[in-house]
Amino acid sequence: MRSILMLMLSITHTQSLSSCPASCVVCSDEAVICHKLSNIIAAPVTTKALMLTDGTIVSIDHHFLSIMSNITVLSFSHNTIATITYDAFWNLTVLHTLLLDHNLLSSQALGGSTFSWLQRLVILHLGNNALGEINGSWFQATGALRTLQLEGNRLTGLDAGTFASADLQGLETLDLSDNLIAYLGKDSFRGLPQLRSLDLSRNQLQSAPPEAFVYLSFLSNLNLELNKWSCTCELRDLASFLNKYTEAPQKVLFNGRKIVCVSADNPAVTTLLELTEANCVSPNHNITVMIKANASISTQRYTRDLALAAVFCFAGKYHNVCLLMPL
Ligand SMILES: *[C@@H]1O[C@H](CO)[C@@H](O)[C@H](O)[C@H]1NC(C)=O
Ligand SMILES: *[C@@H]1O[C@H](CO)[C@@H](O)[C@H](O)[C@H]1NC(C)=O
Ligand SMILES: *[C@@H]1O[C@H](CO)[C@@H](O)[C@H](O)[C@H]1NC(C)=O
Known about the structure:
Layout: H1 2-18, E1 24-27, E2 31-35, E3 49-53, E4 59-60, H2 62-65, E5 73-75, E6 83-84, E7 97-99, E8 123-125, E9 147-149, E10 157-158, E11 173-175, E12 183-184, E13 197-199, H3 211-214, E14 221-223, H4 236-247, E15 252-253, H5 299-315
């Protein structure tokens, strides 16, 4: 049985070399690099790098890949992949880099077994897909992973459960930028003790607990800019942590002093790091509507504005909206 299989493989091998598609820039025994394909082509069993990018491939299944047991680099970047069969990456035990960015992968497309063969995987790029949530079970057998790119997806929050079942003890770089993350729990990164670089820029965070970062002792590259920071007293501890962090040698907070407050009850506070005990305004303070004495205002308008103010203050209760009457 095995010898028949080997024979078939060697025929495939010869055919694939002699029929290298025109859009391939490299077709050798060890590397196949092609653009604009609509299918995964049968590359030689000896292939070490297979890069089929910028095409219209819609799914990955195992028929073509499992035979390439020495493959170390696999890229399907910039295709339209929406499905990956559970056995797609079987036997790829020496795979080092897997690039699946710029595709149409949803969270449902990945499962506990998708990456389970990839014990030597170091770099995994899942950026610019349609992932709505992370399931730690995807990473339960990827203990060698150092870089995980998840930017440009639809992630909305991270909590203690996110990486709970993951084996990411050695992960050093995590890119979560350009998602829809509005919630960050204290223990979101608990399973990632070696994290050095964390990018949370371009998300929807109004606040974040400093505890989420405190225990990341190797963290030296943090990016929090372009979120929806609401600079009330609730963020005082985060600001204080970040000020200490930036003062430590070798620690970088990207664009640190320029992290903008999208809302702040105290108009004097425009950036997150400016926030202190002394200048912060409590998110739960009693809102006082300030109305300038103005003789020309009719009683009717005055009453209407007061009613509006009450409505806005109520609606703003959880968003710390401070309202000053425009009189
Ligand atoms: C994989 O690499 C090993 C060691 O270089 C080699 O002996 C083996 O033939 C290769 N296998 C394939 C399928 O190319
Ligand atoms: C892949 O691994 C499975 C399980 O170890 C094995 O049965 C199968 O023959 C392998 N497939 C190839 C194409 O090497
Ligand atoms: C994560 O995936 C596992 C296995 O596929 C599944 O049993 C579990 O329900 C998933 N968890 C969540 C939160 O979706």
